[in-house]
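Researcher: Here's a chain I'd like modeled. Treat it as a single chain, no partners, no ligands.
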Amino acid sequence: MKYSNILLGICLLSGSLCSCNKFLEESPKSITPVDAYFQSVSQAESAINYLYGKGTGPGRFYNINGLYDGTNSFTLDNLSGLANNTVAQDPSIRHFASLTQTVGNASNYLGAIWSSFYSSIASANTIIDKVTASTSIAEGAKAPLLATARFYRAVDYYYLVRIFGGVPLILAPYTSLENLYAPRASVDSVYASIVEDLNWAIDKGGLADKPMGSNGNRISKGSAEVVLAEVYLTMAGYPLQKGAESYTKALQTAQKLIQSTGGYALFASDGNSTAFDKLRLTSYDQGSAYLYFIEYNGNIQSSGFPEYTLPNSFPVPIPNSDLKVQYTLMTTPWTPSNTLLSMYDSTNDIRRHNRQFYHNSFSYINKSGSLTTIKIPTLPFRWYDSTAIFETAASSKYIDVYRMADVYLIAAEAANALGQDPTPYLDPILSRAYVHKPSIPTSQQARRDLILAERFRELAMEGHFWFDLVRTRLYPDVGAGHTVSFSALVGHDNGRGQKFQQKDLLMPIPSTELQRNPALKPQNPGYEQ
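Model: Modeled as a single isolated chain. Structure tokens:
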């Protein structure tokens, strides 16, 4: 590779605004040099907006990357065996589903994930470096800018370390050829950096203490606190197994959110809307329950998730009706597995009632004035948007990543692990989810099983399945009366006839990254070539 190409790559890694002005004697007048760009809050906010986008980082991870393939979070749900994608076109996704992923057949897919998060990290590093050094931005105005960049850097590393294990820990922009080939840091070191960034954002970031939607769709203190609480919960489990110390921190962090006066609250049922209707309705997208979400706007970049709520066999046009699906295609890259559906009591669990979390029929009044019902497979209803489906083919529905239900379930799991009564945190989840609230068991293990089962029931479609399986090393087994117990993940059937192996707990480092950076070796266990 020519020296100029190497230097150009370094400049690009330093941030999308970099001009490589050390390489050129004179910067193109259409490009603002990065050092000259961070001269005002508005300029810095423009750079921050890149982190909120859907091209890199968590925005890309939860964004649809192909109609049939869905999102990266779908792929991990599919890997868990608790959701299915039978229409995927990318062969890698089918390999994940059958636990046959290798370096050879999965590197392109995983390489895109790796590059996406590191691109976001590079941008965050540039923002942190340049905003900190800026002499024209007031110190008070710097804090929330730095907090947002640190939040995204922490979240980026949180996904990377859970997917790949130890990864290079790059905390400053590249400005030279030195240290270009960074080795993998230990898992413990990566988590320490994540915790440091999130605590900085919470304690020093000057972030508003309110739900994200009440904060103009910007990261808030609650956004950082919910991620930090879950990070501590993950650190308490596998692979770090820090136990009581991290469970205590997870509980304390979750308690701060629950006890906050900032307006955070679970959605409640009222009038004609259940709490779970509100999770679906776009009019509640900026509501009290949401701590971190991916924003969509039907007039700019619409959400394609409503296309996943009806099967491709759905009639177009609908018989004896003026209704017609406006999307070119409906398809099903995320469908609940039989194991997941069997966890719900379809009578007592409101989430399993038709047109709450899921639906299995479509009813309409035909031209003759009669009610007509079309039966469909059980599909997600959380993403159903009738206006987009039958009128505009453009949805503005946000996709939630973290909400207050996460916080209560984190607190319940941590409290129970510490031998404390989880009832104050578990009861609000159960009270709104069931017609007749189930009793909370007296034994610690039975309570743990109930809490973990509620995570699968309550947080379905939100990208938690695989990460929960890996951090607990437990897989759900559904018995009579929809009771759920748990057994070892490794060696458990995935519902498709294959058994999870130790190697499946991490994904292989993409071969393209190993070729670029030999310091990443050795490959993750089980994927050596």
